[in-house]
Amino acid sequence: MKRTKHKNRVLTLFSKYSKSKDYLTKREIVLLLKKEYGLRYSKEVINSLMSIWGISKGSTRIITKSTFPKLYQGPDGFLRDFN
């Protein structure tokens, strides 16, 4: 039961910040981190996040809806401390 609630909360966050409802751009990720968690990371950290977890769409990197929940999973998820 707890797993379902957590997954729903994560997908709700995704839907709240995604304009396309299919993926998050770099700008949308930065906005989510800032507004939801009060986190501000340097450009280099955000670029690393997008390189590790994102996929290429044209010349940009995006975080897909299926990849986003993995950011919250340990031991290697970027947002693993915010379960």
Topology, element by element:
Elements: H1 2-17, E1 23-24, H2 26-37, H3 43-53, E2 55-57, E3 60-64
Antiparallel strand pairs: 1-3, 2-3
Tell me what the structure shows.
It is built from 3 helices and 3 strands. By secondary structure, it is an alpha+beta fold. The protein is globular and about 35 Å long. The two termini are 14 Å apart. The model has no long low-confidence stretch (mean pLDDT 90).
Biggest sheet character? 3 strands, antiparallel
Give the strand order of the largest sheet, numbering strands 1, 2, ... along the chain.
1-3-2
Q: Helical percent range?
A: 40-55%
Computed CA radius of gyration, to the nearest angstrom: 12 Å
How many H/I helices? 3
Which consecutive residue ranges, at least 5 long each, have pLDDT under 50? none
Mean pLDDT figure = 90
Helix/strand-derived category reads alpha+beta
Shape: globular
Question: How far apart, in Å, are the first and last alpha carbons?
Answer: 14 Å
Number of strands: 3
Quote the beta fraction: 5-15%
Question: What is the chain-wise order of helices and strands?
Answer: HEHHEE
What labels would you give this structure?
single chain, 83 residues, alpha+beta, 3-stranded antiparallel sheet
